[in-house]
Amino acid sequence: MPLNPEVKKFLSLLPPQDLSRDVRELRRAWDSAFFATREKLEIVQDLEIPTRDSRIRARLYVPSNRENLPVLVYYHGGGFVFGSIESYDGLSSLIAKESGVAVLSVEYRLAPEHKFPTAVNDSWDALLWISENGSKLGLDTSRLAVAGDSAGGNLSAVMTLLDRDQGKRMIRYQVLIYPAVNMVDNSPSIHEFGEGYFLTRSMMSWFGSMYFSSGRDAVSPYASPALGNLHDLPPSLVITAEYDPLRDQGETYSHSLNEARNVSTLVRYQGMIHGFLSFYPWITAGRLAIHHIAGVLRSVL
């Protein structure tokens, strides 16, 4: 399918990439570029979550005054280098509003200051914390799901592996949005869509150099869940974009989950690029995908 006209216009307005700038400056630019207005909700509460060696920020979005709402733990994208609860304020609040599910947006620590596996550890510690403390916030953590886009999709998939490996069984469902699940992937979409479609091969290489201390890190199943044991995992929705260099690995991961006797639903959005959900103020399909995710969450939780 041709590139969507809204996407084509959006791409034409993006400034040129310059990854030589200071990381902190790049983060500020990222957050300001993709900020969307927060939806009006019953409660929006900033939290501080203790981790094994620090404390991290999180933001809880409660869409209604109903008690015992189910919980979605959301991990933001940004290549493990960019992104925050601020840049995902609009998206997280919209998911909560549309689904009727409470959303906990987690601000895991970023690379290069915090290399792998810090983001994994922070994400896991936040998941444990909400599972153990959610009832104090009026939430039903027996109905808990994880979701994330890009790097956050990676962390969501990794959480399900850890949840199984450590025998916790907290996660009922996972939503993986154009996830990065294979850090050594060399599939055709990486080459076909590696330039000119927002996420580029050079950006992916740069993100990897920021996140990993060595090449050995990249093949850990907690960095590349596609290389791990995929048996006995929760059901999933995997969303991919046609013009995304990560498209093939996301679709292969969904197929692999089914081959391992899990239940995975794959949906490819034609004419779309990586990141299109975050661009929902400008790209109609982004909002439609959010509606789709919200409907699935209402059904499964």
The CATH C-level class name: Alpha Beta
Order of helices and strands: HHEEEHEHEHEHHHEHEH
Tell me the strand percentage band.
15-25%
Shape estimate: globular
Low-pLDDT regions:
none
Tell how many strands the DSSP assignment holds.
8
Radius of gyration, CA atoms, in whole angstroms = 18 Å
Helix content: 25-40%
Q: List the quaternary state of the chains.
A: single chain
What would CATH call the architecture? 3-Layer(aba) Sandwich
Biggest pleated-sheet summary: 8 strands, mixed
Task: Name the average pLDDT.
Answer: 96
Q: Give the neighbour order of strands across the main sheet.
A: 1-2-4-3-5-6-7-8
Structural class per helix/strand content?
alpha/beta
**Count of individual helical segments:** 10
CATH superfamily: Alpha/Beta hydrolase fold, catalytic domain
CATH topology group: Rossmann fold
Number of domains: 1
